[in-house]
């Protein structure tokens, strides 16, 4: 038997037939661009699996705009390519337009990889059956490239959920850190916008709604697969003053926008609100530009996850990971089946 040649792809060494996968991409902004770049960079991994990824269409609003994407990328303003895709990656943002595009595609039983927490949080009534069927992959939707959805949808189910606390919005982290340095809320927000950290309008971030979207996604692995987004009490950071931040510092505390799920009065209480936490609390020491989550289960004890929670390539790394999971044959992220109390 001939010995394998080290530089040859595994499928060539072992005569695995090459399988062509047609992939459609909805959106080519920060995450979509990085996703295409990472597909190129990890080509050897796909080669080793005997898979060739063919991108059949990349939907954008303006196909003529120059972009930093691999040569030959089929940019288009028409979603017709969805008919011929075996997998779709959604990174366009919003809720109604992506749902409208994905609806017929999902109905035909094909898989979707998405980073869109707003879509998952707000359109769950319609998406949940597809998630239960294992068709939805969404590791990147919460804490981007820091894996939390994977463990929560698999091994952590063995433990009885008790409590979750998380800091999942980098823009608020940045603003609160600036306020600790003496800036007003308005000045800190203006700085975040000037640096491109905050959208205009910034309501989704500073109003707490982005954190609430992420908490809704997480809650479906903790307390019930039909957990609704509007069950979350949401308060943003807009009313925080430098005086409050300074007083907290004098008590040895720091303000964070905390997404929390805990037992209260015999039920589950979900909230997003600014909280002054001890400065040595795990959510404070994770680092200003990072996301962090403390997950408490009765049997597994407290667990701590921290890492990058935004950025094109950080997010794309989780999405290419989801694509690999699908190719290997793992189902998507399946929520709990019923509302458990
Ligand atoms: N950025 C992050 O760090 C991050 C992290 C985690 C999750 N996410 C999620 O990932 C998704 C994408 O984020 P992003 O930062 O990459 O957004 P982005 O930079 O604004 O990119 C959005 C892309 O979608 C296209 N698009 C939007 N609406 C469209 C429409 N109606 N028809 C056709 N194309 C449309 C845009 O086309 P044009 O380029 O032509 O305008 C653009 O290419 C969002 O759901 C976001 O919440 C982002």
UniProtKB/TrEMBL annotation:
Domain annotation Aspartate/homoserine dehydrogenase NAD-binding: ranges: 27-132
Positions that bind NADP(+): 27-32
Top EC class for this record: oxidoreductase
GO BP of this protein: methionine biosynthetic process; threonine biosynthetic process
Magnesium is among the record's keywords: no
SUPFAM superfamilies found in the cross-reference section: Glyceraldehyde-3-phosphate dehydrogenase-like, C-terminal domain (SSF55347), NAD(P)-binding Rossmann-fold domains (SSF51735)
A Gene Ontology molecular function term of the record: homoserine dehydrogenase activity
Functional pathway: Amino-acid biosynthesis; L-methionine biosynthesis via de novo pathway; L-homoserine from L-aspartate: step 3/3; Amino-acid biosynthesis; L-threonine biosynthesis; L-threonine from L-aspartate: step 3/5
Protein name per the record: Homoserine dehydrogenase
Species whose genome carries this gene: Deinococcus proteolyticus (strain ATCC 35074 / DSM 20540 / JCM 6276 / NBRC 101906 / NCIMB 13154 / VKM Ac-1939 / CCM 2703 / MRP)
